[in-house]
Amino acid sequence: MQRLADFLDGVSRVTASIVRWLALLMVLVQFAIVVGRYVFGVNSIAAQESVLYMHATLFMLGAGYTLLVDKHVRVDVFYAKASPNGRRRIDIFGHILLLIPSMLVLLYWSWPSVRNSWKILEGPISVGGIEAVFLLKTLIPAFCILLVLQSLSLLIRLFLTRPDAAKADA
């Protein structure tokens, strides 16, 4: 099970190591757009949409890694003051009853839209934009799958390693 968790973590790490470069590229493209518009009077809808595509890709595909390194948004009302065993229980509850089911529901309900978008190769958001909305919509199921995989990895680790304090609380 440890090897499976390591493999799933590796998926998140590899994905993050690829998409992190989009942050730099996004800054450079946005800088070029601003210089082009205000210095040379040139504007490109496709270039502007490319920033939107890169931003969406960075955040949607980087979500699994964010969960892996524990930098996701957490509501610390109960978690901050909980014992290690209490935190473990909150994490298990959150993964099994909140995160995984919500990602599966999102995947289920978004799939028809993604499928239809691919069927017609859905065109640009704006006239003159990037003719690949179907790729943008594909980020939704990719996001769901990457988060579910990372959640499974974290669940495996939660069940494999039980804190010493948990034994004392039991």
UniProtKB/TrEMBL annotation:
Alphabetical list of InterPro entries matching this protein: DctQ, TRAP_DctQ
Cellular compartment(s): Cell inner membrane
Pfam family, any one: DctQ
Topological type in the membrane: Multi-pass membrane protein
Keyword check for Magnesium: no
Superkingdom, natural source: Bacteria
Spans through the membrane: 21-40, 52-69, 90-111, 139-160
Leader peptide range in chain numbering: none
Keywords recorded for this protein, A-Z: Cell inner membrane, Cell membrane, Membrane, Transmembrane, Transmembrane helix, Transport
Domain named Tripartite ATP-independent periplasmic transporters DctQ component: residues: 26-159
Quaternary state and interactors: The complex comprises the extracytoplasmic solute receptor protein and the two transmembrane proteins.
Similarity comment: family membership: Belongs to the TRAP transporter small permease family.
Function in brief: Part of the tripartite ATP-independent periplasmic (TRAP) transport system.
Protein name per UniProt: TRAP transporter small permease protein
